[in-house]
Design brief:
Blueprint: H1 2-24, E1 57-58, E2 63-64, E3 83-89, E4 93-99, E5 105-108, E6 112-115, H2 121-135, E7 140-147, E8 151-157, E9 163-167, H3 173-179, E10 192-196, E11 199-203, H4 205-211, E12 225-228, H5 233-236, E13 237-242, E14 245-251, H6 258-264, E15 278-283, E16 286-291, E17 307-309, E18 316-320, E19 326-328, H7 336-342, E20 356-358, E21 364-366, E22 377-380, H8 384-389, H9 394-411
Parallel strand pairs: 8-12, 13-17, 18-22
Antiparallel strand pairs: 1-2, 3-4, 3-7, 5-6, 8-9, 10-11, 10-12, 13-14, 15-16, 15-17, 18-19, 20-21, 20-22
Helix pairs in contact: 1-9
Length: 413
């Protein structure tokens, strides 16, 4: 009888301990401490941050705008908002910071108003100096352009966020396209229209992308408007189809080669499996299939209606107990921890201490610091702790058995 009492006491203690531990484990989908371990590992981003405003640099006394080259005083056109510094060294030393007003005038204290709108910078220098000299005849005058103006430019048509954007006289077309969040898939990038007072200039932006021709990436002056036309997909469009079906459309220019198309679409040629690069073309009521070899990339001309089929070389597969298992693009230099981060981290069931990497050559390694190669598989197994105390855990089973056994003891007392 004494032995039965001791057994009953021990089982009761074990029952409540197991029940309490089982309740401590999250049963309703919240992340456990194990699941949060992935946050220790940095996730590298392949995204480039794009600003929605033009950059400024803070100097000791004023802000100035970064420029790509020195401004040519014989070419720069002065307008409202330009800022000038003036020094008059006469009986007393006078220093002024003045702005070109909305009507194109400059007000110089003790001198008066000077009209400078739409004059080249070199002529403005001379006009300011000569006007000041009329009052300060024996004075020495220095004039310089301290900062350039800003104004609004409208971009419309086939961009992702058309509207008005604040730019300056040195802002180029590509910067405004970035501000407008890039081209629409059906954008006719080789026929961009820049209009000004009734005249229209057509810009082939693809020539800038292909050859770096700055004439096709001009600076935009005040009063100009940018229109990116939509292409006619039926007559100018192609489709890009990978392993998941059609996922991209684009407008091509006349005689554009497959290599030019891939390059301007930021396709990394090292990622393309050229053995499986196929062009499907429909003509005369039948389908034509062309297999394009690497040496033919820049000689194979695309035609409207073409379907470009390609399979990216093997990336990296992340499987097991992670938030978003699947295949991911290969990034040289990424470790196992980086790819687990890309997959959203390990789930509450996953164990980072037992991660296995299966390389494409069949060899295996363990650890989150392993450098990943193209074609690797990462497997995150279930943790032992989760196996013991998770849903329908080992301790819960023991608790149930203990309950049954206590019932048995009570029935046989």
């Amino acid at each position: 009888m004494k032995l039965k009492s001791i057994s009953f006491l021990l089982l009761t203690i074990f029952f409540w301990a197991a029940l309490g531990y089982g309740q401590r484990v999250d049963q309703f989908g919240r992340q456990s401490e194990t699941a949060l371990e992935f946050s220790k590992f940095p996730v590298k981003s392949s995204l480039i941050d794009k600003t929605t405003d033009l950059p400024k640099i803070q100097s000791e006394n004023y802000l100035y705008t970064p420029i790509e080259k020195t401004i040519d005083p014989k070419a720069y056109i002065v307008g409202p908002g330009d800022q000038f510094g003036i020094n008059i060294n006469s009986i007393e030393n006078l220093n002024f910071i003045v702005y070109v007003g909305p009507t194109g005038d400059i007000l110089i204290p003790t001198v008066g108003v000077i009209k400078v709108d739409k004059l080249v910078l070199a002529d403005v220098y001379e006009k300011i100096k000569s006007t000041i000299k009329e009052k300060y005849k024996s004075g020495e005058v220095h004039v310089y352009l301290q900062n350039i103006r800003e104004y609004k430019i409208q971009i419309s048509g086939a961009v992702n966020n058309p509207g008005f954007y604040v730019v300056n006289p040195l802002t180029r077309l590509h910067e405004i396209i970035i501000l407008a969040e890039g081209f629409h898939p059906f954008a006719k990038e080789f026929g961009i229209e820049i209009s000004d007072s009734g005249s229209v200039r057509v810009v082939n932006f693809l020539d800038f992308l292909e050859n770096g021709n700055l004439d096709e990436n001009p600076t935009i002056v005040i009063g100009q408007k940018i229109y990116v036309p939509f292409g006619d997909f039926q007559n100018e469009g192609v489709s890009i189809r990978g392993i998941e079906g059609i996922h991209q459309y684009d407008i091509i220019q006349k005689n554009e080669t497959l290599g030019q198309f891939l390059r301007r679409n930021d396709a990394s040629l090292s990622d393309i499996n050229f053995d499986k690069l196929v062009i499907k073309r429909y003509g005369n009521s039948r389908q034509e299939i062309s297999f394009v070899e690497p040496e033919e990339l820049f000689t194979f001309n695309l035609q409207s209606g073409d379907i470009i089929e390609h399979i990216i070389e093997k990336g990296v597969t992340v499987n097991g107990f992670v938030q978003m298992p699947g295949s991911y693009k290969f990034f040289p230099g990424y470790t196992c921890a980086d790819y687990i981060g890309l997959a959203g981290g390990n789930s509450k069931e996953g164990s980072l201490s037992k991660v296995t990497i299966i390389h494409a050559d069949g060899t295996t390694e363990r650890g989150t610091n392993v450098l990943i190669r193209r074609g690797d598989q990462i497997i995150v197994p279930r943790s032992l702790a989760q196996w013991l105390v998770g849903n329908s855990s080992f301790f819960q089973i023991i608790a149930t058995m203990a309950s049954v056994y206590m019932s048995y003891l009570a029935a046989t007392k």
